[in-house]
Structures are given as C-alpha cells and as structure tokens.
Amino acid sequence: MIVAFCDEESREGRAMFNLLQKLADENSEHAGTLEIALIDPDEFPLMVDIWEDMFGIDIEGGPQIGLVDISDVSGGIVSIFLVSISRICY
After folding, report:
1. Any residues with CB less than 8 A from the CB of 47 and at least 6 apart, and which?
2. What family is it from (predicted)?
3. FRET partner for 79 with CA separation of 20 to 30 A, picked from 28, 48, 73, 88?
4. What b/e sequence results for 12-38 when a residue is b if at least 16 CB atoms lie within 10 Å of its CB, and e otherwise?
5. Is there a contact between 67 and 34 (Cβ–Cβ < 8 Å)?
6. What is the pTM of this model?
C-alpha cells in the first residue's frame, strides 16, 4: 500500500496529490491490487504523533510518501491505522 501524508492546501501537498491522482488514473487496470491512501494530517491531528513514531517520519516537515506492507497485520496499532485510513482510500 502506498501511504502519503500531505496537506492539499500547500503547494507541495497539491503536487503530491496530483502525482498520486495521475498514478491512480494511469494504473486503473490494477484496481484492487494498487492501494493508495492519501491522508491530510490536518484532518487527524491526534494521530500525527502516532504516525510519526510508527513510520519514523516528520509529517509537519512536508509531504511524506512511503510503502506499507499490510500482508502481516498483527499489531493492534497497525490495525487501528488501517481502519482509520480505509475510510479515505480510493
């Protein structure tokens, strides 16, 4: 799963969003196997510290993108994370 944290109100965040939208559009034949979660950290302020610790990133420093292996979801916090982002995946 591709996970991206970006604020669409910033120039860099809009660029990241547009890039991921283009990636999704160009790979629509892989629907169901290509999963992209775009997360606006402003919408989940209480999760920012948890995500930064979980992934070792600085969300407030600018857009962040990475891959998450969801094939072995045994940790409780990872399950909570996936439930949270499943509502905003497209």
Report:
1. 41, 84
2. Belongs to the calsequestrin family.
3. 28
4. ebeebbeebeeebeeeeeeeeeebbbb
5. no
6. 0.70
- Angstrom distance (rounded) from CA 54 to CA 30: 28
Cα(75)–Cα(90) distance, integer angstroms: 24
For residue 17, what is the enclosing H or E element?
Answer: helix 11-26
Give me the count of residues in the chain. 90
Residues 6+ apart with CB under 8 A from 50: 77, 81
Q: What domains appear along the chain, each with residue ranges and CATH number?
A: 2-86 (3.40.30.10)
State the CB neighbour count (10 A cutoff) for residue 81. 22
